[in-house]
Amino acid sequence: MKKTMYALLLLCSALLINACTDDGKKTQAHVIVPKKNELTKPVVYQVFTRLFGNVNTENKPWGTIEQNGIGKFADFNDAALKGIKELGTTHIWYTGVLHHALVGDYTQYGITQDDPDVVKGRAGSPYAIKDYYDVNPDLAIDVVNRLDEFSALIERTHKHGMKVVIDIVPNHVARNYHSVAKPKGVKDFGEQDDTSKVYDKNNNFYYVPEQSFQVPSSASYQVLGGNSHPLADGFFDETPAKWTGNGARSPKPDMNDWYETVKINYGVKPDGSYDFPTLPKELENQDYRAHYAFWQNKELPNSWYKFRDIILYWLEKGVDGFRYDMAEMVPVEFWSFLNSSIKMQKPDAFLLAEVYNPQMYRPYIYQGKMDYLYDKVGFYDTLKAIMQNRQPAKTIFDAHTQVADIEQHMLHFLENHDEQRIASPDFAGKAIWGKPAMVVSNLISRAPTLLYFGQEVGEDGSENAGFGSSTRTSIFDYIGVPAHQAWMNNGKFDGANLTPEQSSLRQYYKSIMALNSIPAVVGGDMHKLSVVGSEAVVAFVRSIGHQSIFVISNFSEQTQSITVTLNKNQISKLNTTDALHDLLEDHNDIWITKNANGASFTLILNALSSAVLTKKANDE
Fold first, then answer.
1. How many CB atoms lie within 10 A of CB 144?
2. Mean pLDDT on 453-463
3. Confidence class of residue 62 from pLDDT cuts 50, 70 and 90?
4. Which end of the chain has fewer CB atoms surrounding its CB within 10 Å, N or C?
5. Would you state the pLDDT for residue 571?
6. Strands 560-567 and 598-605
7. pLDDT of the residue at 569
8. Which backbone phi and psi does 285 adopt, to 5 degrees?
9. pLDDT for the residue numbered 65
10. Can you tell me the distance from the alpha carbon of 618 to that of 432, in angstroms, rounded to the nearest whole number?
11. Who's near 409: CB < 8 A, 6+ residues apart?
12. How is residue 17 annotated by DSSP?
């Protein structure tokens, strides 16, 4: 399979990489423009949909939608989508699209009002889905036509050559789940449950019989920050109580539990045993068609079919893929069933799962048929520790080695909605620390890359939105995102209000992501390089066919003078009479010196600087 992919990559790219202009002068930013139909690595651009187009700068803690404003589907105009595409984006992950519980009043549209006692923030958590067949009414200009407005956004995104990814949250739903948009004949979650039982195979929820739900309380927390609301009375009517989304079984969950949600039952009994067939071992190495065939004519829990129907509904609407929230809390057998059903309908669907347990990586890929998983507890956590000077730079190779056999399935990121902003004081304090980290993260393997909106212009997440803490851009409240708003420029999306530093950072991100069209980056093998002279420098080579790309990144705020040594295998396909030149920054040509054991070259790297070196020869 690997040899076939390599051959395709070489055939698909008549490679000519040249870091000089036509008149021979060095350029400051060496942006490679991919050729039509040229293969690239997936790049997912995550946008928090309600925040992306918001031009309001009030940013009042716990502010209402009228006070702090909100973005709409329509804000993703041609200029916005063009700007997103410039970052090498192949897929836009529109976070918070589905209708989730929120404090706003839409009762005039037949939507039941949510109780703020079981809503986090004013705008609500996008992971407390209230209606799986509807979209968030906050995001529509015309609430009545909200689904049509989202369909139009799907069409615009496709027009700009990108695919659409939305969240699916299979582990839990909002306590006040109630669908007003479900197709005829569809039953709501829990509508047919036998609530007298803690568990039944075909119940959608788990119950605490004969006890009522109690709203959690804390001396350090006030609903809506203490602002008044007619339903904010410390009471939510739910009898019998349901298990909370994170599996808490008490009728009164802790304030730190996912108390705004209830856990979905997939046929896992309270003692942990399964009420459904397990997968035969031989299916691990078979494709989605074999998995699909296995699940036919099986008697499966009702929740399995509910989510399959939901997924197929959105595929029919034109959605191209899904990001699965907390996928490891749902049995891998269910994923085999669901993902094989998806692939039968759309073989190129993009399936990304949030999984944090490394022991579950391979089962969720091979048995669950996931395309990609988060590489957080290994790669991201290590890279963050390097950026914070808590670990030597070379430890990134240890993290990579742990998943080397599945690297192409492990999504790399430096920011997302769950993580701190790089520029926040609790992370790195400066956005420029993201420069060497982004080079290493994007170029070290075949892994796809995720960018979080505002990352490329240094957003620091310092706004106090209300619920939760700063350093992470709020997902619970109405808020503006200042650095992103500077690029947005009141809907022009031209970056006119960016500072020179912000503009330079965005250009740097564009240059990094443009390297994804190089075959060695898309499909090359990675080998660690030996570095003498600094513990703060990471160096590796990516090779495919006759092409080698040398990546060297300095994680220090001081200039580093280093020597990179190459063994005989690493120089076997190099003509050492040719200079290496830099595709990313403005380093002068680098000359390789042969020696008895191989070869070496020297390089001076400025603070937080990188070099991506290759030959000038045309036969790479």
1. 10
2. 97
3. very high
4. N
5. 77
6. antiparallel
7. 80
8. -100, 15
9. 97
10. 33
11. 361, 365, 370, 371, 372, 373, 447
12. -
Q: Which residue reads 């209708």 in tokens?
A: 99
Q: Residue 356 contacts by C-beta under 8 Å, 6 or more apart in sequence?
A: 328, 374, 376, 377
| 335-345 per-position pLDDT tens digit | 999 999 999 99
For tokens 């670990």, the residue is 391
Dihedral sign, Cα of residue 66, residue 68, residue 73, residue 78: positive
Q: What angle do CA 413, 319, 522 make, to 5 degrees?
A: 40
Residue 305's pLDDT is what? 98
Beta bridge partners of 413: 450
Closest CA to 337 of 298, 370, 297, 291: 291
pLDDT of residue 225: 95
pLDDT at 22: 34
**Residue positions counted in the chain:** 620
Q: Spell out the alpha helix ranges (H) of 346-481.
A: 361-362, 381-387, 395-401, 434-443
132, 310 Cβ separation under 8 angstroms: yes
Nearest to 86 by CA among 509, 517, 615: 509
**Lookup: tokens for 17:** 């990489």
Question: At which residue do the structure tokens 């507890």 appear?
Answer: 377
DSSP assignment letter at 300: -
When pLDDT is cut at 50, 70 and 90, the band that residue 40 belongs to is confident
Whether residue 331 is preceded by a cis peptide bond, meaning omega within 30 degrees of 0, is no
Mean pLDDT computed over every residue of the chain: 92
Report, as an integer, the average pLDDT of 110-122. Answer: 97
Q: What is the gyration radius of the CA atoms in the chain, in angstroms?
A: 25
Q: Is 314 helix (H, G, I), strand (E, B) or coil?
A: helix
Q: Give the H or E element holding residue 21.
A: none
Report residue 35's pLDDT band, with 50, 70 and 90 as the boundaries.
very low
- CA nearest 404: which of 381, 367, 375? 375
**Beta-carbon contacts of residue 569 (< 8 Å; ≥ 6 apart):** none
